[in-house]
Amino acid sequence: MADEMTDQDEDDRLMGRLLRERLPRYPAPALLRATLVQAGSGRDRAARWIAPAAAALAMAMVMLLWIAPLLPTTTAGDPVRLLERAVLGEHARIILWGESRPDVVPAALPRAMEESGVALNWVFTGDEKIQLLNARATYLEGRRAIELAYQDADGHTVTYLVLPAGALALPERGRVQIDRWRPLVRKEGGFSLIIWKQQELLCVLVSDLVSDGDLAKLKQYFVKVRSSTEPHAVY
Amino acid sequence: MADDQFLQQALQHLDALHNLAVYLTRNGSEADDLVQETYVRALRFSHRFQPGTHLRAWLFQILRNTFLTFYRLRERESPLSEHGVPEGELPMFQDAPGQDSERSSAHMDLEQALMRLPEEFKTPLLLAEIEGLPLEDVARIMDCPIGTVKSRIFRAKERLRGYLKDYGGDPKV
Q1: What is the mean pLDDT of residues B149-154?
Q2: Tell me, what's the pLDDT at B151?
Q3: Does this complex have an ipTM over 0.90?
Q4: Is residue A82 exposed (0-12), middle (13-18) or buried (19+ Cβ within 10 Å)?
Q5: Across the interface, which of B35, B97, B110 has its CB nearest the CB of A32?
Q6: Is residue A22 included in any domain, yes or no?
Q7: Which tops the pLDDT comparison, B6 or A1?
Q8: Which residue did the predictor score with more confidence, A90 or B52?
Q9: What whole-number distance in Å separates Cα of residue B8 and Cα of residue A40?
Q10: How far, in Å, CA of A191 to CA of B72, rounded?
């Protein structure tokens, strides 16, 4: 038994050495380093390389979203599932485009509220763990909505969407007690969604925080957003 | 800490980040994009850092999270192989540094074997064995307990040995 353990340890050490000695390393190209240095020192820090890449990605996402409704689906008749898909599409767009273009939030919020028809009396603008990057109006499942993009200190994007709830009813199944609220928590396609109703509005928080530890973080963000944001429909 | 100062410190880890990015994305330009995105995200939160803290581990964590975010988006769009990676993508063998043919072949086998590992095995193995990060830091980056990290590294090596045998190589070379 002891011999087997020793052999195993020796095999592990050999494999470690093999990796260190034989596995090719890929140092960063000089151009990448220069780009980062330039981006860090310039006032337009991210724009130089993000713009063309994000434009290409955004175009790809637009194409994907354009053909998505044509694809066969098994979610017909489940309005919550349809909403989830729409929210994930919006979240993808935020990641690929909106997040990389942080806006001046105090300026963006009034415009987003006016265009979306959703007013925010109070809004959670962030703390040391998560920051609000931008806000804009959007269109989701035939309804105008406001979306706020946050990013946490570990680089996760968290999208907060608010839109008129209409007649949509949230099912009891999947509800989870978080602090003093009981929202619907779902996982879909590698993303987590927290969905709740607030007055006559439907609110969704979506992120790629899916592991148990990460979901606990998302729940903390939910508490911050839920307790510090007060949305209401203007009309 | 000022942005410039932070960037200077962060750039010390650029090669290591790029190396991991290449092994995660298997694509040079995607790796560049991933690393750039990592630095942009890190700079946004640079005010949280004090010199001497675990900057290296934090940067790796951001890089991995960013990769997983984009990977999940792509995952929704393309079919996956049994190993959890999109089909039809090739490792970057052609970019391996020039060596004599025998050694180069060993590089290729080892790299090819590594590419077959699922991300949750590959990343802790590279971080611990290649980058020399303490298991505590690897656990933080992977967002899992240290015991899980140890187990994944053990299983990764076990799988690598099996793959290398498949290629007819001697895993103890």
Answers
A1: 94
A2: 94
A3: no
A4: middle
A5: B35
A6: no
A7: B6
A8: A90
A9: 9
A10: 8
Q: Looking at the 3D structure of chain A, how many domains does it have?
A: 1
Identify each DSSP E strand in A155-207 by its residue range. Answer: 157-164, 184-188, 191-198, 201-207
Supply A157's token pair. 């994007």
Is the pTM higher than 0.90? The answer reads no
Read off the tokens for A74: 């098994």
Question: Model confidence over A156-180: pLDDT tens digits?
Answer: 889 999 999 888 888 888 899 999 8
Residue A146: both structure tokens together: 């406001």
Please count the residues of chain B: 173
Q: Among partner residues B35, B73, B114, which is closest to A95 by beta-carbon distance?
A: B73
Nearest Cα residue in chain A from B60: A154
Chain B contact for A157 (CB, 8 A cutoff): yes
Domain of residue A111 covers 102-233
CATH number for position B2? 1.10.1740.10
> Is the residue at A86 inside a domain?
no
CATH number of the domain at B156, please.
Answer: 1.10.10.10
Whether B11 and B74 share a structural domain: yes
Same domain, B63 and B137: no
B72 shares a domain with B29 = yes
| Cβ <8 Å between A23 and B35 | no
Instruction: Identify the domain containing residue B41 by its residue range.
Output: 1-89
Residue with tokens 């001046």: A104
Write out chain B residues lying below 8 Å of A95, CB-based.
69-70, 73
Asked whether residue A60 is domain-assigned, the answer is no
